[in-house]
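Submission sheet (multi-component)
Chains listed below:
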Amino acid sequence: MASGIIRDVDIKGIACAVPEQIINNEDYASVFGKENVQKFINLTGVKTRYVAKDEQCTSDLCYVAAKELMKKLEWEPSSIDALILITQTPDYAVPATACVLQHRLGLSEDCIAFDINLGCSAYVYGICTVSSILTAHGLNRALLLVGDTSNFGINQNDSATAMIFGDGGSATALERCDGKSFTYFLKTKGSGFRSIMVPAGHARTRGKQIQDESLYQLSMNGSEIFAFTITDVYKSIESFFEEYGIDRNYIDMFVFHQANLFILKNLARKLKIPMDKVPVSIDRYGNTSGESIPLTLVDVLGNEKSREPVKVFMCGFGVGLSWGGILMDIDRSVCLPMIYTSDYFKGDDS
Amino acid sequence: MTLKEKLNLLEEVLDVEKDSLGENTLLEEIEQWDSIAVISTIAMLDNVFGKEAEPEKVKNARTVKDILDLME
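Outcome: structure written.
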């Protein structure tokens, strides 16, 4: 298992932004029938979701979150050495959206900037990647931006995907800090790459005349994802706890990717942890893809002032299939309150 | 677990009337047998019987007996 301890990096702040437009899933009764919608809400837990209007991209939400975070931390743009964006809904096919954001945020030309394509596991992969970059390159400060506007390109007549996703963007400030450390594991099972997929629209279908519009939309195999979570993900968490001698009773919060409520409950049951240690944000925000872990942290800690540390196990799992976990102590005061915004980038000529 | 208990358990999972299922009941004739029912069945097989059911096997089950066999 790819796992270990990363030292001398700390999370200094987390900010999340969601669109102002709120969608109530009960309003889908006219599309799918009242009973089916209720059944869906009972299983997934998703009652409302924040959904971006067409003109608002992931980058716009991440931009607002990053701006607020830099202001709160009093980080000068020139002091930021790296900006990594993890999204599956970039602004353009080319170039990397991180480069656009480096420009919009006024960061220095000495700043590393690139995108990573991951979803549900993005936050855990992001914290590990950014921390490794800081330590390996002897750099000091970085911004990790994670977000998705997953409702872009969703088939509104597919009940499995039309009512599940919320949109949002997050910014996490990481800084070199002597003495701080966290433990992690990262895993991949590419054999399940079809489980969550947009099959058409990129190079694999180049030159083909595709009539079936649904191939350009996200397809999700719910039963495979569920089985993957309660077997592969569950077993890796158990192995990780065992390998590093982690006593789950001393963990304050288990912040899981908010896939759906049924998955969260089953994962908690298998791990024998009480649901009151598993914060839930999916009921109000939907499944916000890679942002769901920072969003859940912001939802729980967004108004905390105490600097008392909280021991958090974060675990992201899904599309790829890709998953990973991190155990770390964070300050209770690390999160900004939730930001609601309709802002978008107007400097784009296209 | 007796056959009756297994059937009652499945009736509970599928949210159908008690004692309405038999071994030969065709799943496609049960209105509640949908993608959510497949997920609930996988969870039940894991939770009650400790079985890692392959999603395809549950999805492709034809009769109630096919599900009962996965409990073994």
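Remark: Residues 1-343 of chain A form a domain with the Peroxisomal Thiolase; Chain A, domain 1 fold (CATH 3.40.47.10).
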